[in-house]
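Researcher: Structure prediction, please.
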Amino acid sequence: MGRAGGSLLAGMAIFLLAWTGTGWATDIQVTATVDKTTLSLEDSIQLSITVRGSQSAETPELPPLPDFRVISTGTSSSTQIINADIQVSLTFSYQLLPLKEGQFTLRPARVVVDGKTYSTEPIPLTVAAPRNTGRARNVEAFVETYVSNAKPFVNEQVVYTFKLYRKADAQNLNLDMPYDQQYFRKMDLGKSKRYTQVINGVEYEIHELSVALFPIKPGRVELPPALLEMDLLYRSRQGFPGRSPFDPFFDDPFFGSRSKIEHKVLRSKPISLE
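Model: Predicted structure follows.
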């Protein structure tokens, strides 16, 4: 190899050594953030726990969250090079669904990074009642549950029915109809039904699902609220400022339409059986 090639390699080696020696940040920072601190029972919280300065962190140890349903939504990593400085981070994401109203504090989560434990700061949360509920209001969506018999005998079939009423399109529906297995055995009653109904002059699309519950011992028991998580789609063909003359062509149903997505969590009322 010629002298010029050797000089070039030496220069690159010196540059890489300098970059490696000064570029990797040694400070570890662990933070917890949420997308909102005030919400209703129809909403959810996006919790992000971010580790900056390392990508070898262990899975966070979350604090007890008895008043929330916790769903892990994945992990993402990031590497950025800014002015020869390499910045790395690792983010753990969670979705929190509130189970009741009130004032809460999201206590610190703990994360182990390279054998050392780091803690996040507490976060205050406020959960309010749903803004609009029931068929008496002209809302985009609501749910109801009912039973065929609130005073059954032991082993007598009780039909437990869930109904979703919606005006907007919906996707990613996830329904949970909890019951106490110590008091009931369950049997499915086939596929869900779908039909329309006019309520107070408003037409709703209805999804109806029924299951059979059989009491296995006497006593008073409560069916907890059914929980439906979904995304509502609001489609619009209205004009927008600054639109191109070609926009109406692309607003044709063949090409789809502009839409807004709203994540919703709907709950029914609990039902008491005797």
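Model: The chain has two domains: 26-128, 141-240+255-273.
Researcher: Thanks, that helps.
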